[in-house]
Amino acid sequence: MQTMTKHLGVPSILFAIGVGVANTCAVAHANGFPTVRYEINGPAVAQYISYQTDTGQLHQVNAPLPWSTQFTAFGGQVFVISAQGPGPISCKILVDGNVVSNATATVGTPARTVCTH
Length: 117
Description:
Blueprint: H1 10-28, E1 35-41, E2 45-53, E3 56-64, E4 67-72, E5 80-85, E6 89-95, E7 98-105, E8 111-116
Antiparallel strand pairs: 1-4, 1-6, 2-3, 2-5, 5-8, 6-7
Main location: membrane
Keywords: Cell membrane, Membrane, Signal, Transmembrane, Transmembrane helix
Family: Belongs to the MmpS family.
């Protein structure tokens, strides 16, 4: 009796890896889309805050600190927030409660900070 062995080609292997990665990502958010929270902290007022959400680019002027906003992401988004004001001023991005980016600016007039994910 002869046994036949079939070798997978590179496209088949890449497809299998892609399916595995897609399934892993789907499990992470199987219960819905991720919740994203932006936070800005500092001693006074953020003169200007600019941020990207599911509805586009938004901004706040002279926002009392601490400041935050939250939204539901729909996938494939880049998360960005920047702020300027008297230092130190810091930004933070949380996805499903986990910090994915944070930064603090201590110098500059005004101090400027940016977080991306």
